[in-house]
Amino acid sequence: MHKKLLYYNIVVSNLIHSTMSSLNRLALRSLPTLAAAQQSFSTGAAAFSSSYAGSFSRSSTPLFIPSHISIHRQFNNHSAMRTYASTPNSQTPNGSDILASYSSDSHIGQDVAHAMEMLAKADAVCFDVDSTVIDEEGIDVLADTLGKGPEVTAWTTKAMDGNIKFEDALAARLEIIKPSKTDIANCLEKHPLRLSPGVDRLVEALHKRGTDVYLVSGGFRLMIEPVAEVLGVSFDRIYANTITFDESGDYTGFDSNEPTSADQGKPKALTMIKEKYGYKTILMVGDGATDAQAKPPADAFVGFGGVVARAAVKEKACWFVHDFETMIDIVNKNSN
Questions:
Q1: Where is 231: in which H helix or E strand?
Q2: Which of 97, 111, 123, 128 is catalytic?
């Protein structure tokens, strides 16, 4: 009898868990009124993240948090569990209507209306990091601190302009600087990475709407994690390169299995993201030729020229922007 009762308890428990999970997904994806009921559970986490991220700007307090500070992981875990009550508006206007609400002569791109519509209803947005989320190239900053700036910058320019395969440029630059763990930590303490103006508000608006945000970068995970932390992006939503070290912390190479370690790596990363989570609409935002490669599988590509305006990117972008203000406005207007 005891075994039967235990069996029935397990069955009922699994049934309840399954039902609640289904209702949760339905609330987040389909029914704003049900989703609103979850507000009380997410308010504390969302408010904490918003105030934390909002305290940083272009000339703000350094983003780097030394690895020995435990809040680095704790905050990320908190943000990873955070949910948002609202979802992309099911009554999203078409792109032509959105574009018509702005001064059309100020927008550049191959299909601006389409990109605006994809942003309005995207359930995931992927951002490049260097010269997009931050206002410089992380590897160039690292090279400068090690006295190898000009040599590495030349390789970076060729890679971002699409004049060389990304994997060749990555290997060449790392071979020049061979950064140790200590080198990277010292770099971030001496030269904290800076957010591009407005990107924190854009990510906050996307999160508030229920849109998932990813950082997809050819840069280095060790340098991107502090940025993700400030923006409230969980570490499992970072697709970036991993530098390898020996037991002493000296450079040994990089993990070539990371999708972003090679040319065409970003479309590979977005395909992985789309297939794993089943997103219907995904947008890519970035400044470089490798970002433009991400469409498809991205439904639209927004080129960013607020730090460096690259001609090759402007030619391929569905929509080319120099700041994030209109994007923020579209997201805010198309939230429940």
A1: helix 221-231
A2: 128
